[in-house]
């Protein structure tokens, strides 16, 4: 108590503002902030979703966020954003509509509030945000002015605020006068930032601006490429282009980030929807086509990327792409693939002017030194009746290669990888023997000296 009177607790009041603010008039509702708070008083747009409200700076941005997040938004209402230059102490919290109007007037936002009241349909609540700086960050407090039809005036037998028109009116000031007379507290609600930069910083830490602006093309949206694209989005890559001309099938469900709801649909488009469901404001573009056809369709878009990733595992496709990187026709590219049964995985960065993927393969695109001896490997199993070959391995078995590749992508984007690089993940010794695989002679010494279940960083030999 004494700390509150002397000011000793002020820093706690400011840093824990949500806790103190929502004690006043608790509400189950939240306000979801779809973009960073503005640097000045602003009139935003709001749409109700269930008990919560989503707010954004423009109607188009708000509707886009709702659509990509899989939520249905209703009609939009205005949202008042009042920015003040100093922290707000609990003793100064506005409690009623009259308090809020006085607070807005003292903050220089009276005209903005009047405009919002004039546009308000008055059928639903009116969201209000108060923003102030503290410890280098914005603190956001949310309020919901109740629709006048839900307000019981003192001594009245029925709900309703006398003199308040229930249709938008130019006379926002008259509406404010009516609300001020109503008395009673308005709901104090928690503000939850839901825009991508905040969510990524919250989980992955401070993301460099260069990574937020980076553009990565992912070719191949299968089990490896799909998981990788999602991880890159969560790591902070700002822009993705997904390229795949394959349809998702039930056979893919066991180890893909997609599920049965995507069966029969294009992998690239469904993967983009999964990424947008978490980050509705991310930039994701999809191409349902072979990557080499993009030369004629939208080459300028994909050629502007900072980095390509080839996760097709197709030797001929990788050879072609490797040639284009060497010729300077395609940006630097990371090639990634799994060995049979996912006992090992590879990620190779080809930087133009440095060693190429070709230095690791023969003329047919086969690895010269795979970890497992492919010549002695047993044939992969076949599906009953159709005879199609397949590779059994779990999603868990492929995650080490996803991490291996993702880290190499981030190293390349950050400039930490300055020459062509080959990284290899080798699984357990039991995974080789259990699948009838032998170790390639070139790897006997490495594994004997350094062991299994680890990453290897190897040079990329010059092209023969």
List keywords for this structure.
17 helices, 8-stranded mixed β-sheet, 7-stranded mixed beta barrel, 464 residues, Rossmann fold, alpha/beta
Hey, roughly how much beta strand do the residues contain? 15-25%
Number of strands: 15
Cα-atom Rg, whole angstroms? 29 Å
Sheet with the most strands: spatial strand order = 10-9-8-11-12-13-14-15
The CATH architecture of the largest domain can be given as 3-Layer(aba) Sandwich
Helix content: 25-40%
CATH superfamily of the largest domain: NAD(P)-binding Rossmann-like Domain
Give the total of domains.
2
CATH fold-level assignment of the largest domain: Rossmann fold
CATH class of the largest domain: Alpha Beta
In one word, what is the shape? Answer: elongated
Mean pLDDT: 91
Describe this structure in words.
The chain is an alpha/beta fold and 464 residues long. The chain has two domains: 2-194, no CATH class; 199-459, NAD(P)-binding Rossmann-like Domain (Rossmann fold, 3-Layer(aba) Sandwich), CATH 3.40.50.720. It has 17 helices and 15 strands. It has helices at residues 2-6, 10-15, 17-21, 59-68, 97-107, 110-119, 172-182, 196-204, 209-212, 223-235, 267-278, 294-297, 299-303, 315-326, 395-413, 429-434, 441-450, and strands at residues 30-33, 42-49, 52-56, 76-83, 126-134, 137-145, 187-193, 215-219, 239-243, 283-287, 307-310, 333-338, 344-350, 421-426, 454-459. α6 crosses α7 (172-182), α10 packs parallel to α11 and α10 (223-235) packs across α15 (395-413). The protein is elongated and about 90 Å long. The mean pLDDT is 91.
């Amino acid at each position: 108590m004494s700390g509150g009177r002397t000011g000793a607790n002020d820093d706690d009041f400011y840093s824990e503002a949500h806790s103190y603010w929502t004690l006043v008039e608790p509400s189950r509702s939240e306000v979801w902030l779809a973009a960073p708070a503005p640097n000045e008083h602003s009139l935003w747009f709001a749409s109700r979703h269930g008990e919560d409200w989503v707010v954004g700076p423009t109607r188009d941005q708000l509707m886009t966020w709702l659509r990509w997040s899989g939520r249905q938004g209703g009609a939009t209402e205005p949202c008042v954003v009042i920015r003040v230059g100093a922290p707000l102490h609990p003793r100064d919290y506005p409690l009623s509509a009259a308090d809020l109007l006085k607070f807005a007037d003292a903050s220089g936002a009276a005209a903005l509030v009047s405009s919002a009241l004039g546009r308000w349909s008055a059928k639903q609540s009116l969201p209000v945000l108060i923003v102030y700086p503290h410890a280098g960050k914005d603190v956001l407090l949310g309020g919901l002015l109740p629709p006048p039809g839900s307000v019981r005036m003192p001594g009245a037998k029925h709900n309703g605020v006398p003199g308040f028109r229930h249709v938008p009116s130019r006379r926002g000031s008259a509406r404010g006068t009516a609300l001020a007379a109503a008395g009673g507290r308005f709901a104090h609600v928690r503000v939850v930032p839901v825009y991508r930069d905040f969510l990524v910083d919250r989980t992955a830490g401070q993301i460099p601006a260069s990574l937020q602006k980076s553009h990565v093309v992912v070719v191949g949206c299968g089990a490896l490429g799909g998981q990788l694209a999602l991880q890159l989005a969560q790591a902070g890559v700002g822009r993705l282009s997904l390229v795949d001309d394959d349809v998702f099938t039930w056979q893919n469900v066991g180890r893909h980030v997609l599920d049965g709801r995507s069966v029969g649909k294009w992998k690239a488009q469904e993967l983009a929807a999964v990424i947008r469901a978490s980050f509705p404001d991310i930039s994701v573009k999809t191409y349902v086509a072979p990557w080499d056809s993009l030369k004629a369709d939208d080459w300028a878009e994909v050629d502007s990327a900072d980095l390509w990733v080839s996760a097709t595992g197709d030797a001929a496709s990788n050879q072609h792409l490797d040639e284009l990187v060497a010729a300077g026709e395609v940006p630097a590219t990371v090639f990634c693939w799994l060995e049979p049964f996912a006992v090992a995985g590879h990620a190779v960065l080809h930087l133009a002017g440095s060693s190429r993927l070709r230095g690791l393969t023969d003329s047919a695109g086969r690895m010269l030194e795979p970890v497992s001896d492919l010549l002695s490997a047993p044939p992969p199993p076949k599906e009953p009746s159709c005879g199609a070959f397949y590779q059994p391995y779990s999603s868990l078995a492929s995650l080490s290669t996803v991490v291996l590749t993702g880290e190499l992508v981030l190293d390349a984007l950050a400039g930490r990888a300055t020459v062509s690089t080959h990284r290899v993940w080798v699984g357990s010794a039991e995974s080789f023997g259990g699948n009838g695989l032998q170790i390639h002679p070139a790897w006997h010494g490495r594994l004997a000296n350094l062991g299994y279940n680890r990453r290897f960083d190897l040079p990329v030999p010059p092209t023969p």
